[in-house]
Specification:
The chain contains 3 helices and no strands. By secondary structure, it is mainly alpha-helical. The radius of gyration is 18 Å and the shape is elongated. It starts with a helix and ends with a helix. 6% of the residues are buried.
């Protein structure tokens, strides 16, 4: 039935999207472990300043301070 096919296609697309989100998170965590090994963990990749412990408690894999994340968003919005 067409409705079932549409529902199945939606479910499959959702599963693929969720799997991609999981892969992206695993990559971010692996990258954070590499930064720990390199001694650069907790340093913003944009500003070069330390990332606050509050932010690292919330997002331990983050590469950017709040300031750096905002700058990154500004750059991305200008390139659109």
């Amino acid at each position: 039935h067409m409705a079932d096919q549409g529902s199945d296609a939606y479910d499959q697309a959702l599963s693929l999207d969720l799997a991609q989100v999981d892969r992206n998170l695993i990559k971010e965590i692996d990258d954070a472990l590499a930064r720990i090994a390199a001694g650069t963990f907790g340093v913003c990749e944009i500003t070069g300043k330390p990332i606050s412990t509050v932010r690292l408690d919330e997002l331990p894999w983050t590469r950017f301070s709040i300031e750096g994340a905002r700058e990154r968003e500004r750059r991305a919005s200008r390139s659109i």
